[in-house]
Amino acid sequence: MPRLRVALFCLLMLVALGTTTAASAGAETTAASGDAAADAESYSEYYNYANLTARLRSLARKYPRIANLSSVGRSVEGRELWVLRITKDADADAADAGKPRFKYVGNMHGDETVSRQVLVYLAEYLLAGYGAGDPRVTRLVDDTDIYVMPSMNPDGFERAVEGDCEGRGSGRGNARDVDLNRSFPDQFPDPNQQTPGVGEENAPEVFAVMRWIREKKFVLSANLHGGTVVASYPFDDSAAHRMEGVYSRSADDDLFRYLARVYAQNHPVMNTGKPDCPDNPTETFKDGITNGAKWYDVPGGMQDYNYLHGNCLEVTMELSCCKYPHASQLQKEWDMNRESLLAYMEKVHIGVRGYVTAANNGSALPDVSIVVAGINHNLTTGRYGDYYRLLLPGQYNISAIAPGYTSKTVHSFQVTEGKATKLNFTLEPVASGVNAASTQSTTVATTAHTPKPAPSTAIAPGGNESGSPSPSSAPEAKPTPLQPHDFRHHNYADMELFLRRHSSEFPAIAHLSSIGQSVEGRELYVMVISDNPTVHEPGEPEFKYVGNMHGNEVVGRELLLNLIEYLCRNYGSDPEVTQLVNSTRIHIMPSMNPDGYEVAREGDVQGYKGRNNSNNFDLNRNFPDQFVTITEPRQPETVAVMNWLKSVPFVLSANLHGGSLVVNYPYDDDKKGVTEYSKCPDDQVFHQVSKAYSKENPLMYKGHPCEELYPAEYFGEGITNGANWYNVPGGMQDWNYLNTNCFEVTIELGCVKFPKAKDLPSYWEQNRKAMLQFIHQVHRGVKGTVSDIKDGSGIPNATISVLGIDHNVTTAQTGDYWRLLIPGTFQLIASARGYEPMKIYATIPKDRVEVVDFKLTRINTESKGLAPKGPLATQDPSVEEFQSFIKDLSLGGGLEELVRSTVTENSFRYRNYKEMAEFLRGLTLNFPKITSRRSLGESVEFRTIWALEISNRPNEAEPSEPKIRFVAGIHGNAPVGTELLLEFAAFLCINYDKNPAVTKLINKTRIIILPSVNPDGRELAKEKQCTSTLGMTNSHGKDLDSDFFGNASQRVVEAQAETKAVKALILERGQTLSVSLDGGSLLATYPYDKPVQTVENEGTLKYLANVYARNHPKMHLGDPGCPSNGQDGVLRAAERQSHMGSMKDFSVDFGHCPEITVYTGCCLFPPADQLATLWAENKKALLSMLVEAHKGVRGVVRDKSGKAIVGAMIVLNGGVRVYTAEGGFFHALLAPGNHNIEAVADGYQQQRQEVVVSSYEAASIIVIEFDMDNSIFGLPREFVVAAAAASMTALVVTACIIWCVCSAKSNQQKDGFHRLRQHRDDYEDEIRLTSMGSKKSLLGHEFQDESESDEDTLYANKL
After folding, report:
1. Catalytic residue numbers, as ranges
2. pLDDT tens track for 1035-1086
3. DSSP state, 1112?
4. Disulfide-capable partner of 1141 in 364, 551, 666, 1042 (CB 3.0 to 4.6 Å)?
5. Model confidence at 382, in pLDDT bands (50, 70, 90)?
6. Where are the alpha helices (DSSP H) in 1168-1252?
7. How far is CA 507 from CA 436, 511, 567, 776, in A?
């Protein structure tokens, strides 16, 4: 028995031990399952997201020295966008130093799945083969920084269905159904595409990859897709956006073809060019490759983004006919693509590579531009100063360019086949304080191969072809100016880099800015060159050159780049250049039509490709014309230039074209539209400046420019009147002359529009002297300053007239002026509103400018014996400071600076009524010290009509401060105004106590904002409805802008609830100005809407509308695409749409407050994504109204004792009336100029004054003191009393005489009375009848309408 127990015990121990061992072995097996799986690839199943994640993590754990797993972001549904990095020392921070970065991206379309698996297989192949007897793989991993993203769209994959070859199911797009390969920024925006851009919330995958691309600066990449078998290279779309057939060539087209061919030729099916896909069996691709846009247009593609915004060249590979083949096909797909994947990766090592370092300390220079001449695509160095530029074998001129460093160029650098050739650059920093002219480009670089020097084609003046000095040169001769050395055609990116480089190298004299953007979003760059390039210096003329207005006329573009280089590099060493730069502010716009240039082609002689902008409009037929109505929509390039010309007081200009060789001067067209001489008033001046150019260009001056092309064409002395050559309506040069101070000519620079690059040096030589001589012409004629004789301040917008020449110029904001004239004696007249004009005779010399200054005397009351009897108002320092503040905002760039200094970011959208109400409430809660919200009443559907007051004391009466009212939403279908006013309110509140200007305005102004008059209509209106009337009226179907009547006799039905609420606000005393925002056009209108023949105070009302339009970037230019466009964006309301009962008419007639209506855009209810642009356009104009509210005339009325007189009537210019408020204060806006003011109050003598109103000064306070009225019936009191006493005495004497006479004859009268009694009955009857008649008459009058007629009432109630 004991033995049996022992045996049983041993058996149990063995079982337990065996179980424990088995469990332990099972645990080990489970723990290693992931690694085991990594070793056992079946090539027969797809990995879902969980399996893919596990697989990649397993590989990273198994090969930690050469593999690192990370995520670049997350998908919509939160899945990681995994990237497996494969390289030697993958975890080291500096592992990428000296290695080019390469990437593969797969599964961008979730239902195109072969790439997802193939890239996992590639990663396994590289990791397993490294150091395991495969030298090719080992070399790749050692020398390359490889990034593999198997799935860019993991959400889409999870929805895709295996076996779906044609993508008919879901999964192509991401979880928000966004096509990721149509969502990247595109270089060719489609004007017909109405949908807004994709935001990060809808495509986080795209934004994550974009950040990744910009951060890593990849060199080469492939994007793997499915659906056919081909390699597709950039560009993927074209400006034309035709569905197919348009070859869209990139600057590296040959290189892209080569790279695509590398992949295709190693793929057994792709190499044939015949995919033989079931859905399109006849489709073929020559050599297995295709240009993307030629195949089909793909806007927003990833490969183009890589090329244009990263350093990376990317090709798209379509791997299989079936998008989601069955898993059984995966082994075959891997076998077909393996060699292609490896061979394509190896091409990241071709071309040229190297480092860029600083010469002074050897530090690496990141973001240095590497420029290859002849290839208009640059890239930049990485953070270690390293660069990799893929190139095909050949000779290249390669430059390294960095801000603050002298650029270097290696000429004829030989790129060999195979491994990249090394080329290092060492850049010298630009020494601080060294004259800009001393920093010159060199051709020295550290290189593995000695380059052959490239022959120069430029010949310096005074030198022979070799550049050596001529034999007659003396040692003491002044140095020859440095000539441009880089003659080539610059595409947009190249030009941009050139401009940025020169602005950076020569900051003391060169300033680069953009005046706007082209249709396709390219910047319209302007380089200003002067000794103080960022500001207008009084007395220094502004000059401009504009080139490339027609995109295929390119000589002007290149000459202007040459001129920039010439001026910058010779400043301080060449006397002529130095004198011009010091005395002139030179503006140079190399390209007004950068979009057109990009599609033009070198070698074009007489063609039209690229002539027009991207909307296919000729920009030189797009300006407003004096003889012809231009109906085409104003283009963004045109609008930008017009705004630019209005903002700078240009004096002289040239517009550079090509196609002939002549200087063309105004006018460009005439009334008849025929070819004949169209003379402008300054015809002789234009002759003078035109010949100044042509004489310095011998071929032009000869007059037979293009004998081979146009043998009969002849221009005497190389110049011509525009219309005498051919008519050009809508041209830029005429618009310059008629709408600004600027005299502009058009210069045709050559017979060939787009000549070969080799010919550019000869164009520079032909035009260099002429271009400089033309700049000299800006220093001819007369110049000076118009100032106030009392305080010496410059008078802006003063007019300079020349007797006998019907063309005036105006002074700049600082009072200075320039007026081009030919030599001779002229009578000049300077005039300005509020000043006495002044005449001076001046003799203009031949070769210099004559200086003539004017000091004008103000027209004031003292000069006319109209001095006010009361004392002047006391000006305390704070008032004077505020007046100076208003002047600063009104002159120069004060208001523009305020706009720039108060940038607010907002996500614009339309708010419904509830959101609007909550927004206003939020303002009062967040800014309680400066805001107050109140209800004016309710709409028909009981929505509250809210008004918001913004001021430093919103709940206290401030009668001395101007009160301005902003109103919107009277038409519910035009809600833009509502959103603008809500943003305006937020803008003011947020900037209060932060921005000094905004704070001052709020402290001195009472601002009332009524964002929605018609909330019921707004709830009905629909977004993106530009012409719909839905929501225009209130719930009763009433147009509220026809419901404001002041007299019961004018009203047929009772006023609407909304009207009553707003009328109560309008009738509150003391409102100075009202601005109402509406939609459906782009203009500002002024009263009246009703059809009246004359408008009292029209000058002021029109002026206020003009102020708004002038401060709007587009409105003052007019928009032919909008209905009812007025002159300079301003129109009398009745001329737009005449109607009775308008809000602004009521405001003027009964509220005694001028009101203008601003129509913010052609579309009534535009898409929400346009709101940000509309806000930017109206922000300055809205602020200008706040400034304008402080101008005009203001004052206080009181009696001799100092008692304020409330309710006194102030009559302006004999018509318009305003009334004094509490404290006797009044304020009235008036147009700049002289005005008569009469003050009338019961019991006081009438007072009269004359005031002068300035366009830029705040209203000064005037005090009107009343004397008691001692007159009776307009006669002196003493005279009236004496006359009354004499009259009473005479009456008493006369009464006594009559009594005496009557008494003496009393007996004789008794008989008469007896007879009267006899006829008593007859007499009483007569009296009774007479009495009845009187009663009947009274009864008839009782029912007469004693109210005034409509017409009488209409005019009786006007101001």
Report:
1. 318, 748
2. 999 999 999 987 655 566 789 999 999 999 999 878 899 999 999 999 999 9
3. S
4. 1042
5. confident
6. 1171-1188
7. 9, 6, 13, 23
